[in-house]
Structure formats: structure tokens, C-alpha cells
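Case study 2.
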Amino acid sequence: MVRWRGSLSLSLILVLGSCLVQAINGQELTRGSFPKGFVFGTASSAYQYEGAVNEDGRGKAVWDTFAHSFGKVIDFSNADVAVDQYHRYDEDIKLMKDMGLDAYRFSIAWPRIFPNGTGEVNQLGIDHYNKLINALLANGIEPYVTLYHWDLPQALADRSNGWLDRQIIQDFAIYAETCFKAFGDRVKHWITFNEPHTFAIQGYDVGLQAPGRCSIFLRLFCKGGNSATEPYIVAHHTLLSHATVSDIYRKKYKDAQNGSIGIAFDVMWFEPMSNSTEDIDATQRAQDFQFGWFMDPLFFGDYPSSMRTRVGDRLPKFSTAEAALVKGSLDFVGVNHYTTYYAKQNQTNMIGILLNDTIADSGAITLPFKNGKPIGDRSSSIWLYIVPEGLRSLMNYIKQKYGNPLVIITENGMDDSNNPFTSIEDALKDDKRIKYHNDYLSNLSASIREDGCNVKGYFAWSLLDNWEWAAGYTSRFGLYFVDYKDNLKRYPKNSVSWFKKLLKSS
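Prediction:
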């Protein structure tokens, strides 16, 4: 283990708490392992679940365009049908109720509410989400609603370059307020954005997700973009959009509707590759350029000093009024956490020459290997290594750096491959997934009970196998197996029984 520079060693915390974690792992995890009122749910997104992309007035999203572009999705699939939850939500809600889940996190598709991004509201879209929300509540399941899970209306991308233009702040505010008016009497938990870091990097830096903009590697993969500037502009406009919407909600709706508002961030944990000062500093920068990029403005009013120093004038600046608007503009921190990597100092300028982007700017290299040995067992996804203790370390980091804010784990899970030679019977035997959730939840429980971290909920990704963005249908994250060859039938994996037992326990 290595020390964490400048604060109480998180690695030391792990060592001191290892006996507790082992004890929890050795015992049966129960609801009693978590505080009273702790919320258990599953998470999803509209584009990955709904399908029905051309029904009931829905407009086109940037992901429709991207998924239908040759070579962008590994199995050449698209989400035109996905898992058809648009038509099957009643069936899926029954699955949630049978499991004993407390909540369901889903996203509203912006193009269903405003097919052209702005302008006339599509009443059929409003009607659909009213029916979904009412059905959830009728079955005792609390809705947690994400306003933006990457499905930007294509019309906005065409008309004003989407997140690259400040006009998006006003466009998003109109969309969000429309949702507050339509659904806020019943929705008490709002998430403005899902993983702003991901769509800024993947969409505008490396170009591997919609809208597929980049300038790296001499722009071999992208038709347009500037990886050195656009990710920072997108992130800046996202923060201002969130803060604007939060301000509207607090001034006009919160007192009457009594809800809360947050953001769901993608957060890997990083451990230094070595005890060297250079690697320890690089580890902090890796976190600054991932999590601090958004959290520091929200809690301190500006970007991390490491970003200001290394990015310079390419990093947008907040005016005094904007900094005040952004700071403190969330009620809870959503954390999508899956894995942990090592981080080390970038000792060569070659990465900077090839990329000239946010990765190069950080001066840190992150890898899941040290001396040829993986940091943990791997799931199907090439990026997802199983390191349960990383979740506890991350919760303590948030507690120490940001003053122990309210945290909700808005996503956590692992995938199996969609192997055509694996029978459904064998696919349902997901012992690895059970161990994953048990071990991550055990570490989460320890962070709450022993370390005093302020965590109030956990959402597994995901209820169903689904369309996984550029991975298409090659990856299965679901607790329920979806048979893509037979009318999208749902079958419970063994992890469903495990969760049912956990959620019924005391």
C-alpha cells in the first residue's frame, strides 16, 4: 500500500478497516448492513432501453445518427428497438416489484419532449412519462429521473452545434423546466446529467461516442472537432446548464414539490503506480481531470488548480456571477463507479504529440496493470476490472475533500459477454456478478458504518441486458437476461434471487 499525499492515507484506512470488510464478506449481507432508509434500485437510460425511436412524435437524437453510421458500433447494431421498454414498462415494473426494489433510475428522452430540441412540446412524450411515473409509484417504486443521458436532439446539433454553443444553456433550461412542470409533483429526485465527463471526452475528445468529434491522430476517425478545446467547452456549458436549471428549480419549484437535484458522475478510483512523488502527484491529477473537473466548480467555485495550470487559456473561465451560480448548485452527488486503475506520471511527450487533448493535458497515464499483473479480475468489458475496495476509498476521498456531501451510488455493476454459444441456462448462472455486488456493497457498507461516509442509496446497472452504446449488444450488464433472438423475453439470472434475498432481509 502507498500513502495518499497531503491527507490521511486512504490506503491506511483500508488496512485498518480490512478486518471489518473481511467480517462483512464472511457474513451474509443484509439490509441491516445499511442505514435505515437506504435506497436500493436499478438504473437505465432512455436510449439504451426504450426503442420506439420513430413512434409518438419522438425526434431524432445524435445517437440515432451515430449508431446508424458505419463502423461506429462494434456489432453494427443500433438502438431502434433496444429492449423495447417503451412498450413493456408495465412488465419491467413488475420485475422490479418482485425483486423488492425501492427505486428506479431512468432518463427522459429530450427528443420525446421536444422533437426539434426547442419549440413545441410533444404531448405524446409527456403522456408516456406520466404513465411510466404513475405505474412506478402505484407499485411502490420511487422514480429517480435523469434529464440528460446523452440523447441530444439532432436538431440542436445541426442548428447550433449542441453543447459547443452557449445557446444550449437556455435550450436545456426550457426542456428541464418543462419536465419540472409536468412531472415534479411526483418526481422528488432529479439528476440533471449523466456522466458529463464521459460525453465530453468520448464525444468531443476521442470521438468514440456521439457526436463523434475529435482531432487526435490526424483526425483519422472524425470528420471534425478540436480535441484540445472542445471537451473543455462542452464541460463548461454543461456545468452552467446544470447550475441554471438548479437555480430555476430552487426558486420556482422546490418549495412546492419538495424535491432534490444532483448530477451522476463517472468516477474511477486511482491508486498510485508507485510510492514516488511523481506518481502520487500524477494520481491526484488523474482524479482532477476526471472528477475534480466538475466537483471543484460545484463545491469551490472553480476548476482544480492543476487544470488551470496545465490547460491554460484553453480552459474556460467562470465570471464572478457564474462561479456563484455553479457553487453549491446540487443537493446530492451521484457516483457511477465500476472500477479502479493505477496512475503514473507520463514520462514521455509522445502522448502529447499524438493526442494534444485532455489525456495529454493531465500528464498522467492510467492503466489496470502493474508489472504485468492486472489490478483485479476482469469482467467482459476490456476496461472493467473488479476492485471492490476502490469504492470504499472513493467514498472516503469524497468525504475528506468535499466535506462529506450526500452521495448516491447511481450506477455500479459488471457485464458478461453476449456469447452466441452460451445457452440461456448457463447465462443465468452469474455467480461472478453476485460476488461483484456483494463485495462492492460490503465495502460501501464499511465506508458508511465505520468511516462515516454520507451515502444514502445504491443503484445496480442494470435491471436488464441492454444496448451498450458503442459495444452494441455484445455486453450483458443485466440482472435479467434478455433473449434478443426470441421477442426480447426476460429471464431472471441468479443475481435476481440474490438481490431479492438481500432486499427482504432485515
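The two ends are 35 Å apart (CA to CA).
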